[in-house]
Design a protein that fits this description.
Largest sheet: 3 strands, antiparallel
Mean pLDDT: 83
Strand order of the largest sheet: 2-1-3
Low-confidence stretches: none
Helix content: 55-70%
Distance between the termini: 64 Å
Number of strands: 3
């Protein structure tokens, strides 16, 4: 018996939505696949990646030679105590997460001016 494509399409057109849903589920189970649309997921991920980044992390990598001034500025930026700010300057770490671009660039400029090494990610 040869496959009759036109008859198959006509049979599909005659089915109700519930019958089509059951048919799809049966085919998924039989062949071990899913009818989910991976193209739509990939397109959504691509669109999200294409959007301009609006939140940045400011990371202090080195306190530099003028650590006292850097510690003062870190305290002003973060609101940390003296001990915590000193540890952050000595060991490096994230100053602020999810900062606006302008805010992140301003922090980097101020700390770099004081001799620290800062990355904006």
């Amino acid at each position: 018996m040869a496959f009759n494509k036109e008859q198959f399409i006509a049979d599909l057109e005659a089915m109700s939505v519930l019958e089509l849903k059951e048919l799809v589920e049966a085919l998924e189970e039989h062949f071990g696949v899913t009818a989910a649309a991976p193209v739509a997921v990939a397109a959504a991920e691509g669109a999200a990646a294409a959007e301009e980044k609006t939140e940045f992390d400011v990371v202090l990598t080195s306190g530099g030679a003028n650590k006292i001034a850097v510690i003062k500025e870190v305290r002003a930026i973060t609101g940390l105590g003296l001990k915590e700010a000193k540890e952050l300057v000595d060991n490096g770490g994230t100053l602020k997460e999810a900062a606006a671009k302008e805010e992140a660039e301003a922090m980097k400029a101020k700390l770099t001016e004081l001799g620290a090494t800062v990355e904006v990610k």
